[in-house]
Write a structure and sequence with these properties.
The protein has about 325 residues and is α+β, with helices and mostly antiparallel strands. Helices cover about 30% and strands about 20% of the residues. The strands form three sheets. Strands 4-5-8-6-7 form a five-stranded antiparallel beta sheet. Strands 9-10-11-12 form a four-stranded antiparallel beta sheet, with helices on both faces. Strand 6 and strand 7 form a beta hairpin. The N and C termini lie far apart (about 45 Å). About 45% of the residues are buried. It binds flavin-adenine dinucleotide.
């Protein structure tokens, strides 16, 4: 690991000013960036700690909308009464990830920005367009069992590993950013950038911007939600395929539905086509399968990951069936 200096930010303005210098990174829980520094994947010369800036509240307004401070720890968010009662899908997604110790450290802001677990990205002995632009993508010809089937390009097929962000994607969250002077909000669907020809540009953020909060609007009254995660082992493992869904059935048809996929996309994947396919239809297994097929038309598989097409389809059908049968909150 390269030597670095450490600065405790005392205000948003201070953090933004400090981060203007090249080679500076923020640190929150440190569960991702410190790993990457040990692997020499990231080598900041300065770390600016943003954990003492407040931003650690979970608040609800009179309409039931939620504001989650960027420093709220994953465990606190998952166990919060309002989150469990009204945004159960978010609680379930967080609790399905990592371990209690990691969730005690990990923050909302840090989780949003966590990096891919692609083995080529995490090993500096290999080329990687995300880590070293223009160097190539060995995953395409190499080991690609865990890589993305949606949203990839000829330059990168690295999967986004997060669980929390899949739930936030289904919930249609807004990400609030501050540059030390002004705040702006970005819809989560615009926040994650597809790799295209620039896989190193992952987030719709400017240099020096800090995530201050995530907001989530109250979900339709009577809607039910669920997060289902499929993985190689039952705990302490990233998703091979996961589905977050919020669905309301009324008069025997799907009145509203929001679906997002994890483990299969280069970004947490909002399944817009699947949603469109389902609205107004009867909540049957066949219609759920057709909805998944509609989304997966765009899937591009590699030598080892074609199984993910069927896996995410079954995961989606199972999740929606559970919701339709009243098996979830
Ligand atoms: C063994 C292991 C297993 C895991 N399993 C899972 C899993 O199953 N599912 C899952 O979803 N995750 C999993 N994770 C990932 C874990 O959830 C993330 O490491 C964690 O959420 C990152 O949060 P953090 O606060 O520690 O981020 P940090 O490591 O502090 O920061 C991560 C990045 O975010 C930036 N950053 C942090 N806060 C801000 C801010 N407010 N504004 C701007 N930039 C900021 C940092 O500069 C850095 O680039 C696992 C991690 C480990 C180590």
């Amino acid at each position: 690991m390269k030597a670095f200096s450490f600065i405790q930010a005392s205000s948003l303005g201070h953090a933004a000013a400090e981060s203007a210098a090249m080679g500076t990174s923020f640190i929150a829980g440190g569960t991702n960036i410190v790993d990457l520094m040990k692997l020499n994947v990231e080598s900041p010369s300065r770390l600016v700690d943003v954990t003492k800036l407040g931003m650690n509240q979970i608040e609800s307004d009179s309409h039931g909308n939620l504001r989650i401070g960027a420093m709220v720890r994953n465990s606190e968010l998952a166990e919060h009464r309002l989150v469990k009662e009204r945004f159960a899908v978010l609680s379930e997604a967080i609790l399905s990830g990592a371990s209690p110790q990691l969730r005690n450290m990990a923050t909302t802001g840090g989780n949003l920005l966590q990096k891919t677990r692609c083995p080529y990205y995490r090993d500096v002995a290999f080329a990687c367009n995300k880590r070293s632009p223009g160097s190539g993508c060995p995953a395409i010809e190499g080991h690609n069992r865990n890589q993305a089937i949606l949203g990839g390009s000829e330059h990168c097929i690295a999967v986004n590993p997060s669980d929390m962000n899949v739930a936030l994607m289904a919930l249609g969250a807004m990400i609030h950013l501050h540059d030390g002077k002004n705040e702006r909000a970005v819809p989560i669907q615009d926040f994650y950038l597809l790799p295209g020809g620039t896989p190193h540009q992952e987030f719709a953020m400017m240099r020096g911007e800090i995530i201050t909060a995530v907001t989530v609007n109250a979900q339709p009254k009577g809607a039910k939600s669920l997060y289902v995660k499929l993985r190689d082992r039952a705990s302490y493992e990233f998703a091979l395929a996961s589905c977050a869904a919020i669905m309301k059935i009324s008069s025997g048809v799907v009145e509203s539905v929001q679906i997002a996929f994890g483990g299969v996309g280069t970004v947490p994947w909002r399944a817009n086509r699947a949603e469109q396919s389902l609205k107004g239809k009867a909540p049957t297994t066949q219609n759920f399968a057709d909805a998944a097929d509609a989304e997966l038309i765009g899937a591009a598989v590699q030598s080892e990951n074609a199984f993910k097409v069927e896996l995410i389809k079954r995961c989606t059908v199972y999740t929606l069936s559970q919701l339709a049968n009243g098996g979830a909150l």
